[in-house]
Amino acid sequence: MPKEIKVILKKEFEQKVKEGYPLLHSEFIEDWSLLKEEGAVLKLYDSRGKFVAKAYYGVQNKGYGWILSRKESEVIDSGFFARRFKEAVKYRKEFFNNTQTTAFRLFNGEGDGIGGLTIDYFDGFLVITWYSFGIFKFKDEILKALQEVLEFKGIYQKRRFDAKGQYIGDESDFLLGEKAPEPLIVKENGVNFAVYLDDGAMVGVFLDQREVRKTIRDKYAKGKTFLNTFSYTGAFSVFAALGGSKETTSVDLAKRSLPKTTEQFTINGIDLNRQKIIVADVFDYFKYAYKKGFKYDLIVSDPPSFARSKKRTFSASRDYTKLLKEIIAITEKNGVIVASTNAANFGMMKFKGFIDKAFKDMKIKYKIEESFSLPKDFKVDPKYPQGNYLKVLFVRKIG
Ligand code: SAH
What we know:
binds S-adenosyl-L-homocysteine; alpha/beta; 11 helices; Archaeosine Trna-guanine Transglycosylase, Chain: A, domain 4; 29% strand; 3 domains; 399 residues; Transcription Regulator spoIIAA; Rossmann fold; seven-stranded mixed β-sheet; 21 strands
């Protein structure tokens, strides 16, 4: 067990931590150099020497560590992790009992009481993501706790703790238990997804868009022409096709998107003749579509928060309005744009502002029809609302 190190919070930040804020920023503590090693358990005290909380030291781009417990007597051992995991499992009971959805987030970082750690569930297999070397140091305790608390087939891990929070991939991500088939077929609201648990940083589906995909299928797709930009493995296109869209077009820069998207259609028995999959930069595609006079009834815009390609860099917080203008120009009258972003550096208000500006600049009216943020399994700590990074708006172009 790592030993506990006594640390005094700077006076101007102690109130914030006492009120329940879960993240330790570098400025909260005078001298981090005393800590030396990530993974150390910190006992935080206020300026009058009163115990405030226990935390761990782990460096992420967000901060330097996370609060683990507000009880002085609580020891950070496998029992601690087991208690948190038990609560997390209980909170997601309905997911374990749902045969139509077999992939969900089982443990969502600070939302479940331990920042820097997420665990996803894929039909009995667990994928742990470690966001700092600090939390990775608790690996043995965490694996022991998982084995105690739930039944699973096997465990994989994703390590994202280089300086920029990027994935560190070298050898296999498989950790223990049974190996998953490649692909592993999971279900989401009755739809199949092929996922690959040992294929780099991403497994093939982003679970946080579950409700958005369902809404597209159940309420918006029927009879419509659908364009999916930044389509990755085409998850939105699969739902649109199953919802009865007239045709789908999926555009992504990555070459792998072609076989991956084809696979997702195929395992759902979807007729490939009416699905176009285009490997291209979306900004080039917009120009091409505009020139050809292509228009779509329903368009998904789900860019990465930051991307650099040979030709350009895209940053959601800087370029979203520009992106939307390109999309508005190829949206049919009364068509719907599903504007989505997972950028954590701005909130819903600002996102609505980007959308408003795009339509106003083009002198076109619009109406927001639906709004989504993270689904229930992506539990958010109310004291850390920044953790609710997902923002999705269904926007109708009027006239
Ligand atoms: N919407 C997807 C997830 C998108 S992930 C889903 O729901 O599954 C972001 C994707 O954007 C990646 O697949 C990446 O290859 C792609 N991408 C990044 N920049 C791009 C660009 N300029 N043009 C097209 N695709 C791009």
